[in-house]
Structure formats: C-alpha cells, structure tokens
Design brief:
Chain B: It is found in: Cell membrane. The complex is a heterodimer of chains A (308) and B (355). In chain A, 74% of the residues lie in helices and 0% in strands. With 308 residues, chain A is mainly alpha-helical. Chain A has a single domain, classed as ABC transporter involved in vitamin B12 uptake, BtuC (Orthogonal Bundle). The termini of chain A are far apart. Classes of the chains: A mainly alpha (308), B mainly alpha (355).
C-alpha cells in the first residue's frame, strides 16, 4: 500500500507540472480563443533563454557565476524576452488572422512553434544544458522515516511553487481591475469592447502572463530534465490535460493535470508490465480520448451547442 | 490568347463533366505525364531520381491522403505518419508471411490495413471536433508507433526494430534501379491521384465538403455523418498507408517505427498548408516545396556563407523558415500555392487583353 501511495503522490506532483503548462494554454484560449500550440515552444524558449543569460551574464557584468544576482537578472531578462515574444506574436501572427476559423489559428501556432524552436536554438546553440535552481533532488527524510515513502523534495517544492502561482493568478483574475477586464474579454469580446475595455492591451497582457507561466514551467521542467529540445514535448503532454479539464477552465487545468499525472504513473506501474511497458507515452491520450466520448466538453468546459 | 476555351463546345453532359474540360489543360496534363514518365528517367541523374523525385512523389501521396481528410472533409489530423507506418509494416508482413505475395497486392493490402486502423481512430470524430479531434489523432500517432516498437512480431523480431524491405518483383521483373523504382512510384501515385481527383468531384467528395463546411447543416440535408466521416478517414488512411509502403520499399529500403514520428506528421501537415488545403494539385506543390527547400537552403548556405556557421545553424534556420512560411501563407494566401496557380490561370485566360 505504501508503494501505491508513493506512486500516486509522485504522479500527482508531476501532474501539477503538467497543469502548469496547461495553464498557459488556458489563459490564452480564454482571452483570445486561440489554441496556442506554441506554448511548449515558449516553455523551451524561456528555459533556454534563462540558461543562456546565466551563462553570458558573468562575462558581461563581471558578476560571480551562479550568484543570486545573476539568477535574478537572468530571470528578469528572460521574463522580458517572453513578454516581448508574446506581444510580437500577438501583433505579427494573430492580429492579421483575426476572424479566421479557429483551425487556421491553430495551424498558425504550429508554424510559430517551429519558428520559436529554430530561433531560440539559433541564438543559444543546440547543446543540452543543465539548470540548477539550488534545490536538491533527494527524498524527504521525514516522509522516509514516518511512512517509508520516497517523495522527492524537488517535486514537492516545484509543486509548491506551482500552487503559489495558481493562487496568485486566481487572485489576480478575481480581485483586480485587470483581472476583471480579462474575464470580461474571455466572456465576450464584443461586449467587452463596447464597455470600453481596450482589447489590444488585454491581449498583450494575456500573452505576457502566458510568457511568465511558460518561464516558471520552463525553469522547473528544465531543472528536472535538463534544458533540451525534448522540453517542447511537455506541451504535448499538456494537451490531454486540457481535454480532461476543458479548454476554458483554470481549475479544470489543475484537476486535469492531477488526474493525468496520477493515472499515467499508476498505469505505467500496474498495467505497463502486462503489455511491455512504456505506455506512459500514449496512455494520457487514450484516456483523454475515451473521456471525450463520454463528455465532449471536458470536466469544466463550456457546453457547446451546435446551431445551423 | 493561347489559354482560353473559346470555340470548344460541349455537346453532351459527359463532355461537360470530364476532369479537364479545357483542351489546353488536357494537352498540358498529357504532356506533363509524358515528361515525367519518358523524359525524366532518361535525363535525371541517379541522385535526383532517388533522393528528390521519388520522395517528392511519396510525400505528395501522403499529403493527398491528409488533404482528403483535412482539406476536403475538414477533420484535422496530426497522425498521418502513424498511418504511413501501418501501411509500411503491414506491407512488409504480407510480403514476409505469405509466399508468392505479389508486390502490388501487398501494397494494396497494406493500404487497406491502414484504412481499417484509420476507421478505428476515426470513430471519435463522430463525437468530437476541431482541436479535440486533433488531440485524439495524436493518440493514434503515439499508440501506433508504440505498438510497432513493443511487439517485435511486426518487425519480424529484428533486434533494433528496423525492417529491411524485400526486393520488389513484379511479373519477374526486379525493380532495383532508381529509374525503375521511380517509375513504379510515379505509376502508383498517378493512378491514386487521378482516383482522388475523381472522388472529390463526385458525390463522395461533395459530401465531404458539405460536412467540412458545416456538419450539422450537412446532416439536416440528409448526409449521413458517420458514414461520410469514416469514409474520409478510411480513404485518407489508405492513401497514407500506400505512401508509407512506398516510403519503405521504393525510397528508403529500411525503416523503423520511430521514423514515422510526430515531426513527419507535422511535415505532411505543412505540405498541405503551403501547397493548398483542399486541392489535389496543392498536395504535389506542397510536397515538392517541403522536400526541395532544405536541399535548396543547404546549397545556398554552403555557397554563400561557407563553413563559418556554427553546427546546426542550417537546421535551425530551416525550422525558422518553415515556421515563418507557414504563418506567411496562412496570413497572405490561406489556400496555398495551388491558389496562386489558379489565379495565374485566370489571368492567362484574359491575357493579353484584361478587361
């Protein structure tokens, strides 16, 4: 039983990280109706830009490599790059495609994915790098002593960071002026425009926030698995999460993430051996697909009514 | 002046509904076929036949398959490479396990296997649409590749999962030179492309397009959604399957399941976006463009910049150009290169006296 819980908790913790990537999708989809396939590439872009700056900054400024100053300055610069990237995307790619069918926008973001991947590797090089956040990846001793469970400290702290981020975003959406404007835009573009909400600014803010979420996700994933091209695939894992949770729901993204994370780990451990293992690669998709057959709009998505 | 239908009178419905109603088109098409069947094998070098023309044809076929599903029936799929894999591995196994299996029969059966798998993964399309369906086809992509890797029976227990295509032998003639492989590919692709062209002009294709434009409305006027969508999935997967078999047999010779990955699926999607969504000609133009672009870039980079570039820069530049072009085409010409060709033809009809 201990082992079961160990797997379950490990799965839930990695699910939080999936949710983190899915959150970026939801933010943009809610506000602008764009299914941003490039979110994964943005995560990669953020992580690689951060690592790139930590490498070059000591040379430029004479700061101690690995010091807190370098960390925060790189963080700020990477965040700025993300905001610039987000706003540029909005202006160059999405603005000219306003009023096109959603599937066209989706394909445009696939193009964007390739562009970002090429761009960031052209700037910082193709080599895989390590990224250290100063948190060691060791089991939590207290859990090991009390319950005989191996729970990684890193996963725990990462999940904690993600949860803080979720809470901050929820508060931002619920209680600030900007948040209210964001929700209004998400609800109805036309109505939001007519009451005087500047749509362009709101979209710029949303892409900026999505960039920020991508940076956090990139740092955590990068520290976990190294900053390399495979980081872009985290976006693919976020897709079933979105389907489960519904494209328009922030809580849905979190719960979907938890379900996907836990179920894929449990399936790998308990079902995997019967079919030869490695089922983690497709299990979430099949799960999401079966789920869709029952509830096509996801757990918390808006019900879609077809009209002629 | 040269290209107009003045003076060409249609006396029967049959004449009016032929594939190329304008005589100049007919002549042009036959000339094109003659060029690719007769002249090209004689003048093209081995490199061109083997490394450029054959893959262009094969990818055109795969793009044609995806175009039927996405461009005509409106169901976005991100799993075309997986259906190619099914075609390739099914053909391999039919050749391997049944003695005296004729090659063309094996390809046909491979395509049909892919069609069956396509129907299976098309079933969710009855309930789900748009992005949701795109994600469901990702399930096909990952699941099929996983099955081919995990069950060594499919690759005849080869230790690395790589299969080596058997020699192609049709009626005692061995297809082992680049010329003959190219001609075989060209023949298969021509037949299937003409079939596709006719399919999309007929009731079948019109139903697909009705479903694409608005499925509820299509259902209201009496089109059976389930049948139409599954038909599109089956035909599309058949085309992809045959393309996969050709990919293994006439192009690469050895393939492994991981070769049919998501990147390949995306490449095929890009071919139809750049070439033209919902156009047979577009599939060919897009495939040619995507295959030739890296070759062209390579030449340009090497001759102008030389070896001074950091390693991998070329491939990154390629990614950026691909991505940029996709966005460019979607913004400027959402119907792709095929639409440009069409505009050119319209202009030509009025030339030199546009009103």
């Amino acid at each position: 039983m201990t082992f079961f819980f160990e797997v379950l908790i490990g799965g839930l913790l990695s699910g939080v990280l999936y949710a983190l990537v899915a959150l970026g999708f939801v933010l943009i989809f809610k506000a602008s109706g764009v299914f941003n396939f490039a979110q994964g590439a943005m995560v990669f872009f953020a992580a690689l830009t951060f690592v790139g700056f930590t490498e070059v900054l000591p040379g430029w400024t004479g700061m101690e490599p690995g010091s807190g100053g370098v960390f925060w300055l790189s963080f700020a610069l990477a965040l700025m790059s993300m905001v610039v990237l987000g706003i540029a995307t909005e202006k160059v790619v999405l603005r000219p495609l306003v009023n096109q069918p959603p599937i066209t926008l989706f394909m445009a973001t696939i193009g964007l994915t390739f562009f970002i991947e090429g761009l960031v590797q052209a700037i910082w090089g193709n080599t895989a790098r390590g990224l250290s956040l100063g948190i060691s990846d060791e089991p939590v001793m207290w859990m090991l002593d009390e319950f005989d469970m191996m729970i990684s400290k890193f996963d725990l702290i990462a999940a904690g960071i993600a949860l803080v981020l979720f809470v901050v975003l929820a508060l931002l959406f619920q209680y600030t002026r900007v948040g209210r404007a964001l929700r209004a835009v998400a609800d109805d573009h036309q109505a939001a425009l007519s009451v005087g909400i500047p749509l362009k600014h709101i979209w710029a803010i949303v892409w900026g926030v999505a960039g920020f979420v991508a940076l956090i996700a990139g740092l955590i994933w990068g520290a976990r698995n190294g900053v390399q091209f495979a980081l872009t695939f985290t976006a693919l894992k976020a897709l079933p999460v979105l389907i489960l949770g519904g494209f328009t729901s922030v809580p849905g993204a979190i719960i979907g993430g938890l379900i996907i994370g836990a179920s894929e780990k449990l399936a790998e451990i308990y079902l995997g051996p019967f079919v030869g293992g490695g089922i983690e690669s497709w299990f979430p998709y099949i799960l999401a697909m079966l789920f869709l057959l029952v509830r096509p709009e996801g757990l918390f998505g808006e019900k879609h009514i077809d009209r002629v | 002046m040269l290209y107009r239908e003045a003076g060409q009178f249609k006396a029967s419905y049959q004449e009016d509904s032929q594939i190329f109603p304008i005589r100049q088109d007919r002549v042009g098409f036959i000339a094109l076929l003659a060029f690719f069947f007769l002249i090209v094998p004689m003048v093209a070098s081995q490199y061109w036949l083997q490394a450029i023309l054959t893959p262009v044809l094969i990818f055109s076929l795969a793009a044609l398959g995806l175009n039927i599903l996405t461009g005509y029936a409106g169901q976005l799929s991100l799993g075309s490479a997986a259906f190619m894999a099914v075609g390739a591995f099914a053909t391999y196994n039919f050749m391997l396990r049944i003695d005296g299996m004729p090659f063309l029969m094996a390809i046909l059966l491979g395509g049909l296997s892919a069609a069956a798998v396509g129907i299976l993964f098309g079933l969710p399309s009855l309930r789900i649409k748009g992005f949701y369906l795109a994600v469901a086809t990702l399930a096909a992509q990952f699941f099929i590749v996983w099955v081919l890797v995990k069950f060594p029976w499919f690759s005849n227990y080869s230790s690395s999962g790589v299969i080596t295509a058997q020699e192609i032998n049709i009626l005692g003639y061995a297809f082992n030179t680049p010329e003959s492989k190219y001609l075989l590919t060209l023949l298969v692709v021509t037949v299937l492309a003409l079939a596709a062209k006719n399919m999309v002009r007929s009731t079948t294709g019109r139903k697909w397009m009705a479903v694409r434009d608005m499925d509820v409305a299509a259902e209201v006027i009496g089109i059976r959604l389930m049948r139409t969508k599954l038909q599109a999935f089956a035909v599309s997967s058949f085309y992809c399957g045959v393309a996969g078999a050709l990919y293994a047999y006439t192009y690469l010779g050895t393939v492994e399941p991981e070769g049919f990955n998501l990147t390949l699926s995306f490449q095929i999607l890009f071919m139809i976006i750049i070439g033209g969504v919902g156009s047979i000609l577009g599939s060919f133009l897009g495939a040619a463009f995507i295959v030739l672009l890296p070759v062209f870039l390579n030449i340009v980079l090497h001759s102008f910049v030389g070896a001074a570039l950091p390693p991998g820069f070329g491939s990154n530049l390629e990614l950026m150009i691909f991505g940029g072009l996709i966005i460019f085409f979607l913004i400027v010409e959402p119907h792709g290169m095929a639409r440009l060709w069409q505009i050119g033809k319209e202009k030509l009809r009025l030339w030199p006296f546009p009103h």
